[in-house]
# Entry
Amino acid sequence: MYGMRRGLASVLVVLTLIGGGGGAAAQNIVRLSTPEPGSVLDFSEGRATIQIGDKYGFIDRTGAVVVPAVYDEASEFLGGLALVRQGRMWGYIGTNGDVVIPVMYENAGLFGEGLAPVQQGDLWGFVDTSNRVVIPFMFDDVIGFGEYPDFGVALRPVADPLAPVLVGDKWGFIDRTGAMVIPPQFENAYRFGAEGVAPVQVGEKYGVTDRSGTLVVPAIFDEVGNAAYGGRVIVVVGRKYGFADIRTGMVVVAPEYDSAGNFLNGDLAPVRKDGKSGFIDKNGAVVIPLQYEGTDPFSAEGLSLVAQGGKYGFLDRTGAVALPIEYDDAFGFSDGLARVQVGDKIGFIDAKGTVVIAPTFAVDPNPSCFRSIYSPLCK
# Structure
């Protein structure tokens, strides 16, 4: 169930998001492929994406439509801007629907650290919020600056951010001026996070590099996580998940789990083994027993979505049930609200369980697409 909000982002990023061929927009709009007409996605910066017919728009926290559904695709809002597509071209809008950058690019990605990756012709560059080209169109593919938001985590500022860029068939990293800081040498690479490291592929294996290009976690793993949290990064050997310490490069939680999520919003990470999910601490000790059908990382509100007996609810950090396990479906908290299903409709609740937007939206016809390997529904 980990990834109910964003799919496999934290566990399988190396296989699903890193690398060329998809472009930055594909990396940032991975959750808009299956919503039912009349359905709604999660809130971000006071807005939630809705689908009406085959078009996308946005509602506010009262449920009112504030951006009409006129777009063929739309991302969440990040830094006051959302990425939108009309026809085959991409642009950016503000939270009230005002066009900030016209729909004019062949491909594009979300803004990060004040810059967004955009494509013209076969090459990629970066623009600022005024649509000024800051880094020329000179790369074969790029991934943006800064961290990508996950599970309602407040974006952590990244000091002197670097962005992965593809030159020929190798990935390197540039700074905000476009200067190459780590020369192209990796088969794959992903974003530098707030803890100063980035996952990379060397040959057929994966590790973690620092800003000097030095591997602080050796490239000996079959997969690694998309970001480090609390000094830990997910590592995978075979099909088993554990954690490495980015300071020492040593494995601190042996790869023994069938899946694992990051230490988001605290010192507990969700893990799954033999069909049951619970939480461990940074040294691998089980803190909340593996007894649930699915678990999500704890949100900024200190709540974790869990599944038990085919129903969904929320735990607090002690493992106590904070919101009853009674919903027909539910999704992790984002921007202070969680999507919940009652019968055949979707609405939103706050962290106290109060209904903020009554269940009126259509149920996603393919919910497993929005879940991860934590969920019994994900195959």
The first strand starts at residue 40 and ends at 44. The chain is about 5% helix and 50% strand.
